[in-house]
Amino acid sequence: MKHIGLLLTLFLTILSCSVNEKPQFIAIENVRVTESTSKQITVVANARFNNPNDIKGELKTDDLVVFVNDNELAHVSSKSFKVPANQEFSIPLTAKIPTDSLYSDKNLSGLLGSLLTKKIKVQYKGDIYYKVFGFSHSYTIDKSEQITIDF
């Protein structure tokens, strides 16, 4: 009888902590250049989510691709981020883009336009993965934004 009470308590505890649905991807926000040198441009953005569940989880980015002026220039991979329960949260995405890749032949026309306007088009494209209790889900990201840079 003692074991049945213990099993029932454990079962009720597990049921009260539920995973109702996957965390909701809201947006890629605050895309900005944080550093611009002669060797590289550092672009940072925040991926914003809302977790409606009572259970924490984990998010990981694997090979999120950064396009500048429609040309693939960098990849973003990061450590896992802890997902808080019942909260809205953001994870940082950082890409370091070598400036010499901006000067290649395929980027020349885009570079000339960027020099004149001091603006570049930055696009994040790829997947972010959510994991909890063996359950996983991927979020497909495809976000573009025009940002101002200083050379």
Automatic annotation (TrEMBL):
Task: List keywords of the entry alphabetically.
Answer: Signal
Q: Does the keyword Nucleus apply?
A: no
Q: Which PROSITE patterns match?
A: PROKAR_LIPOPROTEIN
- InterPro entries noted in UniProt: LEA_2
Which interval of the chain is the signal sequence?
A: 1-21
Q: Where is the Late embryogenesis abundant protein LEA-2 subgroup domain?
A: 48-143
**Which protein are we looking at?**
Late embryogenesis abundant protein LEA-2 subgroup domain-containing protein
What species does this protein belong to? Aurantibacter aestuarii
